[in-house]
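Dissemination and training. As part of the outreach component of the grant, students in the summer workshop were shown how a complex can be specified as a set of sequence lines and then modelled as a single object. The example used during the hands-on session is reproduced here so that future cohorts can follow it. Participants entered these lines:
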Amino acid sequence: AQSVAQPEDQVNVAEGNPLTVKCTYSVSGNPYLFWYVQYPNRGLQFLLKYITGDNLVKGSYGFEAEFNKSQTSFHLKKPSALVSDSALYFCAVRPMNSGYSTLTFGKGTMLLVSP
Amino acid sequence: AAGVIQSPRHLIKEKRETATLKCYPIPRHDTVYWYQQGPGQDPQFLISFYEKMQSDKGSIPDRFSAQQFSDYHSELNMSSLELGDSALYFCASSPRSTGRGNEQFFGPGTRLTVL
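and obtained this result:
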């Protein structure tokens, strides 16, 4: 069975500084990888995904993520954090050979950006 | 752009009562997914439907059932409610035609509180 690990419950960064939210995964075969963001009392909002091809994926709101197959990682990054980026971030994985529904989420990382 | 609509947004029930949650997917999305997110937890996949047929089944209790109707909206029926059913219930939708790498679009969720 697949799994996702987000080793940090919380990441603190000052506005204007670069941010990284870590994600590692475990799947049988090749993965599809996703990042979602959740604001308080809101649904999950899609940020970006890796399907195939270029390991560096660019997404919404200036976020990007790098797929590293050897390290089984898909860390989320942003060059310059904004206070409005403060939210809960979920990494998710679906094996390429799985059903359409098999989306497994990590436990989430709370990002706090201070002014 | 149209988003996934869920109703009601908030629901309070007593133990052993029943509840029905509704989900209206994005137009032309033929696949609907249901997730349960407990307090401080990651979303857990419950069940999904494609073209009105059950597609995949996750950790959905036997007390719960769901269906997708001809207009593609879906309903999650929950009976004999327990305190532990208190959670945020998300519906998501996607178009299957774009393949397994497609992202799911989430609704705002229904917050169910069981007293």
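The interface with chain B takes residues 32, 34, 36, 41-46, 49, 51-52, 90, 94, 96, 98-108 of chain A (CB under 8 Å). Students were then asked to discuss how this feature might be tested experimentally.
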